[in-house]
Amino acid sequence: MSSVYQINKGINKAIEFRGLKAQYIGYLAGGLVGLLLLFAVLYICGTSVLVCLPLILGLGTLLFTTVFRLSKKYGQHGLMKLRAKRQVPVSLQFRSRRSFIQLLKQKA
Question: What InterPro entries does this protein map onto (predicted)?
């Protein structure tokens, strides 16, 4: 039996897959690929499977919970807005009045 997963996408709406919205699907996919590569590297280096498997499962659980929590908390554009907000300075400092004087001259 095959499972059928529905990807809900309406007109002008972001892709949503099992509660994940927009870019979080990509974050989860990238994280899973990273975990697969980490497992391969650890296994090739000779680390025991009894060490690799719980480590990868723990990191995978952490990845899933983090991505789903971020998706629920910030939504489609919220994480980008948060990053943009951090780049805005709290205040502007001017050492001289030259900027304001030039604005007054341009206005007049």
Answer: DUF4133
